[in-house]
């Protein structure tokens, strides 16, 4: 994969090893990031007669993207992975003095909108939505960031946040993929909010661990030998 200079990548840091992760977890996350954890589609390359559809009955190819992003079987774990990031960000920034609203319901003519985090201090306000996005072959984190920003950047949402906080908001995101790359705008926003690199790395490592765990649970216990 060609490194994208417009992304904030923590992969070098993870590759260098970290006390935050055990050796076995480290190996699994390397495989995850390289898209080489065993999947039916991966095993079937060059052998079209092999079954490539999701083992849980989805009429979709069993790819890392399907397992991580869309299979109904992993939905609950995907929600947990996302919510843990939201929790960490809310706590970290709350400790830094931001007023934090988690998942406020914002009424709009198109129905309720529920960004993950609305926060403000005496100077600025922000709307932040969190996403773990697909690997680079589908879209980059920068693309996913733009979609999030466009979705929430509406006059009604801006007005609602302005009424709560007294300031027009910056609409941004915390978007990363499971190859450890954050959207550059997400990283810049997190830093502007006072987020530390230590916490960005912690969030990234926990996201990787959760992604590997999701893969293991998807495959069932019998697949553990494919992971290590
Ligand atoms: Zn499936």
The average pLDDT value, as a whole number, equals 84
Which class of secondary structure composition applies to the elements?
Answer: alpha+beta
Specify the overall morphology: globular
DSSP, total strands: 8
Q: Which range best describes the helical content: under 10%, 10-25%, 25-40%, 40-55%, 55-70% or over 70%?
A: 40-55%
| Beta-strand residue fraction | 15-25%
Strand order of the largest sheet: 2-5-6-7
Question: Which residues sit in consecutive blocks of at least 5 with pLDDT less than 50?
Answer: 221-228
The H-and-E topology, N to C, reads as EHHHHHEEEEEHHEEHHH
Q: Name every ligand kind in the structure.
A: zinc ion
> How many structural domains can be distinguished in the coordinates?
1
What's the gyration radius in Å?
Answer: 19 Å
- DSSP summary: helix tally: 10
**Main sheet attributes: strand count, strand direction, barrel closure:** 4 strands, mixed
Kindly report how far apart the N and C termini lie.
Answer: 23 Å
Protein name: Reverse transcriptase
Organism: Petrolisthes manimaculis
Describe this entry's structure for a reader:
There is one protein chain. With 228 residues, the protein is α+β, with helices and mostly antiparallel strands. The chain has one domain. It has helices at residues 11-15, 23-33, 40-43, 64-70, 75-95, 141-152, 155-165, 184-192, 197-219, 224-227, and strands at 7-9, 99-102, 106-108, 111-113, 117-120, 125-133, 169-177, 181-183. The protein has a four-stranded mixed sheet, with helices on both faces. A two-stranded antiparallel ribbon has the order 1-8. A hairpin with a 2-residue loop joins β3 and β4 (111-113). α2 crosses α9 (197-219) and α5 (75-95) packs antiparallel against α9. It is globular and about 60 Å long. The two termini are 23 Å apart. The model is unreliable at 221-228 (pLDDT under 50). The structure holds zinc ion. Zinc ion (ZN) binds at residues 54, 56, 58, 60, 66, 71, 73.
């Amino acid at each position: 994969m060609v490194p994208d200079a417009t992304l904030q990548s923590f992969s070098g840091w993870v590759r260098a090893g970290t006390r935050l992760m055990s050796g076995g977890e480290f190996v699994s996350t390397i495989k995850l990031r390289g898209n080489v954890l065993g999947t039916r589609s991966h095993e079937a390359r060059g052998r079209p007669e092999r079954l490539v559809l999701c083992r849980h009955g989805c009429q979709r190819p069993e790819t890392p993207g399907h397992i991580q992003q869309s299979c109904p079987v992993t939905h609950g774990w995907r929600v947990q992975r996302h919510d843990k990031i939201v929790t960490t960000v809310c706590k970290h920034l709350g400790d830094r003095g931001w007023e934090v609203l988690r998942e406020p319901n914002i009424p709009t003519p198109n129905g309720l909108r529920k960004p993950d985090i609305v926060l403000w201090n005496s100077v600025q306000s922000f709307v932040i939505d969190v996403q773990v996005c697909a690997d680079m072959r589908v879209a980059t984190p920068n693309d996913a960031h733009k979609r999030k920003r466009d979705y929430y950047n509406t006059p009604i949402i801006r007005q609602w946040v302005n009424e709560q906080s007294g300031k027009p908001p910056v609409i941004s995101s915390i978007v990363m993929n499971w190859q450890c790359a954050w959207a550059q705008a997400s990283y810049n926003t997190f830093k502007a909010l006072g987020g530390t690199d230590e916490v960005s790395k912690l969030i990234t490592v926990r996201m990787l661990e959760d992604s590997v765990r999701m893969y293991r649970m998807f495959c069932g216990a019998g697949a553990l030998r494919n992971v290590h």
